[in-house]
Amino acid sequence: MPARRTIGVDLGGTKLLAGAVDQALGVHHRAQRTVTGLDQRALLDVAVDVVAEVRASAGAEVAAVGFGLPCLIDRRTGIALMGINTPLADIAFADVMTERLGLPVFVENDGNAAAIAEHRAGAARGVSEAVILTIGTGIGGGLILRGEPYLGAIGAAAELGHIVIDYHGPKCQGNCPNHGCVEVYASGTALAVEARRLAAELPDSGLAQAQRAGRELAGPLITELAHDGDAAATEAISLIGSRLGIAMASLVNIFNPQVIVIGGGVIAAGELLLAPARAAVTERTLAAVHADLRIVPARFGVEAGMIGAAAIAFDGLEAADR
Amino acid sequence: MPARRTIGVDLGGTKLLAGAVDQALGVHHRAQRTVTGLDQRALLDVAVDVVAEVRASAGAEVAAVGFGLPCLIDRRTGIALMGINTPLADIAFADVMTERLGLPVFVENDGNAAAIAEHRAGAARGVSEAVILTIGTGIGGGLILRGEPYLGAIGAAAELGHIVIDYHGPKCQGNCPNHGCVEVYASGTALAVEARRLAAELPDSGLAQAQRAGRELAGPLITELAHDGDAAATEAISLIGSRLGIAMASLVNIFNPQVIVIGGGVIAAGELLLAPARAAVTERTLAAVHADLRIVPARFGVEAGMIGAAAIAFDGLEAADR
Fold first, then answer.
1. What is the side-by-side order of every strand in the sheet holding B5-11?
2. ipTM of the modeled complex
3. CA distance A268 to chain B (A)
4. CB distance from B5 to chain A under 8 Å?
5. Each residue of A183-203: pLDDT tens digit?
6. Cα angle for residues B7, B8, B9 (degrees, 5° grid)
7. What is the CA radius of gyration of chain B?
8. Would you say the C-alpha torsion B65, B71, B72, B78 has a positive or negative sign?
9. Which of A74, A246, A256 is closest, CB to CB, to B153?
10. Which of the four, A12, A134, B157, B320, has the lowest number of CB atoms within 10 Å?
């Protein structure tokens, strides 16, 4: 019988990804749900349902479930306080789900979960100072400092999407009261906004043609068109990449990291996103701090948060065994 | 005979402060020099001279000298690589000064030095997560994370003055290639720029009268006029405070700190600077992360960097004794 597995669940603003994961962080069964527009109650029901599906196909005993939540989590109380792009608020998520699932449940912020996965077995492996950004509906963040996840005073650190890049800028997304955060300029949501603008300005572009054909100008389609060579789609991604690079320049001056790892759905754009981001960092920071810096895609891509959530569940089990 | 002392030297963009300091971080003799416009050679001569002066009046044996430098310092080589507002570049500062002074010399970034002083015996005492900003010619930074100074991959972290708050903004100061850093909006240099603008706009203001009387509209005078109730001077300081608050909001989202400590010459403005900064943080961040946050002046005020430099010299001696 194979060794026990955990289920990792990454609960994004648009999608929920779940998978059965082994201790070496290999993924054995995957499931996905769309969660746009759900309220908290419906979201919990979907989470219970997807865990049941993955558990049934896990191919081994499932010992625990880890959730990556797009929320501030107060580590003193275990309460998921609130998130920018999620209906979750003031809920003792681990307790509630432990009861509903009949399995030990562990929670972590989704950006931190992605950071943990990339640090253990991905693009930040062997590195002591790493910054992780996950670009999806919003922008999540995770920090590995002196070789360990950095959580801050109550566990609410690394909200790296909420770094201001233009203080005169528009109101940020969802519950964030700030203005001009990088999230409002460079998330997947912002990519779709720029793509719609370019489609209107350039009626001959692939973006405009796709829109006229009734297709939704969201991240996956924009990325597909850009990879196919559409100049407008490429420009939309490049614009997002340069803006990400501006926030990265601040992060480089703050952390002097060895690596910046980019995950989340938008990293499907690969070098089309990363090259302009690197150019902005090179232009805006001193050579001494960017000379040895790597800016790279997450090894686990869009699955980094899910795999990290599973890793946290293994950690939780180990801590309980001691 | 009193216990041995160290000399701390804080080398700012405009002024050099030095003092003989005891192990409890009490200051026993102070000296000051203006260093504006000096080249590297002249700056080293001034540093040698000021150390000799303080040493002669220290009232006890001086065992070592610590320097807080406004520079990136590569910890792998000990080289002071470059700074934004200083002529120091590519110099093995500790080695050079050890030879010239005939005393052990230790160096640290000036913002880190201020952070160390405030964490050991000042406004961040007993706290594990603290952000320190020093507002002078430029804006320096220091980080205490999990109870220890955070230095980054090569020792160049915590350049907190070089967080972008408006990416369309003007070129930053000195050697910084970035645009729209908080340093260009909220340093002592920026305060003087705003005061001159307000003096021109408001010819009846105390600022304008002082300028007509031939006085230089720099930090100390602006602060004095504001404390005396001049509305224009108060407005200049308030503007700088709100802009600082914007960068602080990003830092709060990044670090979820327990305390933000403000030092450097401009903190002489006290609550006139801090109240608008706090208001911006409250407006721009989630209640959960700012609820327990303190934003306070450095206990050691403008001397935090100097005292921290002396503390580093004691640390260096201790490490050598082991």
1. B27-34, B15-21, B5-11, B62-69, B105-109
2. 0.94
3. 25
4. no
5. 999 999 999 999 999 999 999
6. 120
7. 19
8. negative
9. A256
10. B320
